Amino acid sequence: MVPVEDNSTQGQPTKVAVVQHNAGSDVEKNLSTLETLSQQAANDGAELIAWAEAFAYLGRHDGKKAILEPLPEGGPILQRSQALAKRLGCDLLLGGFHEAMPGDPDRCYNTSVYLNSEGEISAMYRKIHLFDVSIPNGPQLMESKQTAPGDTAVCVASPMGTLGLTVCYDVRFPALYQRLTEMGAIAITVPSAFTATTGAAHWHALLRARAIESQSYVIAPAQHGAHSANRASYGHSLIIDPWGEVIAELPEGDGYVIAEVDPARVTEIRSQVPSLANQRPFT
């Protein structure tokens, strides 16, 4: 068993915004919407602003291939996002960035990129668990056909302390969240484009479970609404505290909500119910 590191004293109470929008194939429109909402969130005091999965483009893979950018070098989308973070003076989570895959122009990585308030890349996490599902009268998606998986859990130093990075379908795999907690995470991001069908059944339950198990804040910006005739996202961007309480939620529509993430609350919960410390090895 790997001991849980207590890094909660590293950070300070931090106002976090989760931004919700409805991305399509128009990159300019998507980014303009995000810039407007992020400016408003910063004006309302947000110090960390988190965007959803596939924030710049959600459409056919042929169109996606045209906008792939290598990391950390980037291109127009990364540079525009970096300029925004610096202009707002906020840390910015690019929830799901379409990263070019070296040596394979037909595939990509689904990468969460954390920018600090100077616009510099502090961390990159490639989505490990890819969404391959076939639900009768529901989504039929095979993410692994065009996307390669990552293989490394990633944390980053943020204003509130150690922050774990995940993406969407990862939320169904609690071992990843356990590992991030072992690495010292006191909050974990879950940027998503969760389908409307699975979201109605599982979104709140899964996110609250991950918060309760890890005794960490969960920060989950989401896409909402119809993207095409065959694809719709559930919305309901959430921030959940380490007790499992929803402290901010935007059910539908473009917008954002803000909540304070307080490392002292994590310390309090972990001392009251020391489930992380009480873990024991078993066979």
What is the secondary structure topology, with strand pairs?
Blueprint: E1 14-20, H1 27-43, E2 48-50, H2 61-65, H3 76-88, E3 91-101, E4 104-115, E5 121-126, E6 132-134, E7 140-142, E8 147-148, E9 154-158, E10 161-165, H4 174-182, E11 187-189, H5 196-214, E12 217-220, E13 224-228, E14 231-234, E15 237-240, E16 246-250, E17 255-261, H6 263-272
Question: What are the salient characteristics of this protein?
Answer:
283 residues; Nitrilase/N-carbamoyl-D-aminoacid amidohydrolase; seven-stranded mixed beta sheet; six-stranded mixed beta sheet
User: How many domains comprise the coordinates?
Assistant: 1
Mean of residue pLDDT?
A: 94
Share of residues in strands: 25-35%
CATH class annotation: Alpha Beta
Helix share of residues?
25-40%
Order of helices and strands: EHEHHEEEEEEEEHEHEEEEEEH
Alpha-beta content class: alpha/beta
Q: Which architecture would the CATH scheme give at its second level?
A: 4-Layer Sandwich
Report the major sheet: 7 strands, mixed
Broad shape: globular
| Annotated CATH homologous superfamily | Carbon-nitrogen hydrolase
The low-confidence runs, each spanning 5 or more residues with pLDDT under 50, are: 1-9
How many helices? The count is 6
Oligomeric assembly: single chain
- What is the CATH topology descriptor? Nitrilase/N-carbamoyl-D-aminoacid amidohydrolase
Structural summary, described in words:
The chain is α/β, with parallel strands linked by helices. The chain has a single domain, classed as Carbon-nitrogen hydrolase (Nitrilase/N-carbamoyl-D-aminoacid amidohydrolase, 4-Layer Sandwich), CATH 3.60.110. Helices cover 26% and strands 31% of the residues. The chain is built from 6 helices and 17 strands. Strands 1, 2, 3, 4, 5, 8 and 17 form a 7-stranded mixed beta sheet that branches. The protein has a 6-stranded mixed beta sheet with strand order 9-10-11-12-15-16, covered by helices on one side. A hairpin with a 5-residue loop joins strand 6 and strand 7. The termini are close together.
